[in-house]
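Entry: Phosphoribosylglycinamide formyltransferase
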Amino acid sequence: MSQPLKLGVLGSGSGSNMQAILDAIDSGELHAEIVLVLSDNPEGYILERARKAGIVAEVIDCGGYKTKFPEEKQAAVAAQLKEAGVELVCLAGFMRLVKQPMLDVFPERILNIHPSLLPAYPGLMAWKQAVDDGAQESGCTVHYVDAGMDTGPIIKQAKVPVLADDTADSLHQRIQVEEHKLYPEVVAAIGQKLRQ
Ligand code: GAR
């Protein structure tokens, strides 16, 4: 059996997608290991989830900037991920734009999950954008990260109907059910390709 794929996860919030990846690893569906979890939000539950699972979890200090991910900080994060042996970086609810130098250090090795059928509804609260727009259908997308906002090449999507009585929250909950299946599945497929 090959070595498990070493994953680094970046998130800002609850970390349910990171948990789904961990659960898939535990159940044997995903031959991988999360070696480092980083969050720009010290309060993010993702950090606690990771630590409970015995994973090194640290805060990215963005120096008081609310949304900016300073270039020198991206260089430091890229170096930290490399140092930990990370082969594939998974953005899981990470709310800052990843650009160079991280993209240079991990070319085609950074994935993101987004809660819409991209290219529809990029950006913040995509589930609310879908409800406000009267969309009949939404879903989630796993894609490679490029320097744009939710613009990189799409790997796989899962569809979710928007119901007549959906609120932004109820739609997001149903999208998350699909996210938790889609993300581990895509990571497993990429892991197999990288090990060929
Ligand atoms: C997820 O729904 C993810 O798709 C979304 O944030 C949520 C994080 O949940 N990401 C974005 O909107 C990125 N543009 P989680 O912390 O429970 O995984």
